[in-house]
Amino acid sequence: MRKETILRKSVSDDAQEVYRAIELIELGARMQLLETELTLSRDRMIRLYRELKGTAPPKGMRPFSADRYMIWMPNLHSSLFYNIYLFLKERTGCSRRDSLIKGYRLYVEHCERNQLEVVVSLTRAWTLVRFFEASLLQQTPCCRCKGIFVAHKHDPQSNFVCGACEPPSRAGKTKKAAIARIAEFERS
Ligand SMILES: [Zn+2]
């Protein structure tokens, strides 16, 4: 009887892991994210990836600096995502992984509803969470709009003005330039 219970639990845990893997792959996860966050074997995740995407997963990820989250548009989007993530994790009892998945889905929905470019990919959102966990980043309030933004760990907390209240002069001049900057953020 006890053995049955254990077996049932492990089958259901396994099913949940597969479901999470499917959600993450559909949201654009790469192998490094899947291997770090899930307990499924690498072979199974590669098979799932091929099945869902019809292609082999891309190899590796380039190193990414926390500085990249400070560029004005990525900073606004990263801050939006991180606020949603933290709300889910701290106020709704979601696990860290589920807060990442649900939080990212909500962020994408917000962009789509407001006809905004999705600036932060799932990989970048995940890296952001890991930078916070490694204490490389902190949240800093804007002294004008009172919004909470992503900042370097030891940046001063007072008199910070966010990129929405004070956009750089070149910001948003042309859509083409904005898209080029977003592509640069993703590539770098
Ligand atoms: Zn502000």
Distinctive features:
single chain, 188 residues, mainly alpha, 2 domains, two-stranded antiparallel sheet, 7 helices, 5% strand, binds zinc ion
Number of strands: 2
**Cα end-to-end separation:** 54 Å
Percent in helix:
55-70%
Count the DSSP helices.
7
Largest sheet: 2 strands, antiparallel
Approximate strand percentage: 5-15%
- Order of strands across the widest beta sheet? 1-2
Ligands in the model, by name, code or SMILES, are: zinc ion
Query: How many domain modules?
Result: 2
Approximate shape: elongated
Unreliable spans are: none
Rg (C-alpha, Å): 19 Å
Category from helices, strands and their pairing: mainly alpha
Overall pLDDT: 88
> Which oligomerization state do the chains in this entry correspond to?
single chain
Q: What can you tell me about this protein's structure?
A:
The protein is mainly α and 188 residues long. The protein has two domains: 2-53, no CATH class; 66-187, no CATH class. Helix content is 57%, strand content 5%. The chain is built from seven helices and two strands. It has helices spanning 2-26, 31-37, 42-53, 72-91, 96-113, 122-133, 175-187, and strands at residues 137-141, 148-152. It has a two-stranded antiparallel sheet. Strand 1 and strand 2 form a beta hairpin. The longest helix is centred in the N-terminal third of the chain and has 25 residues, at 2-26. The protein is elongated, with a radius of gyration of 19 Å. It starts with a helix and ends with a helix. The model has no long low-confidence stretch (mean pLDDT 88). Bound molecules: zinc ion (ZN). Zinc ion (ZN) binds at residues 142, 144-145, 147, 162, 164-165.
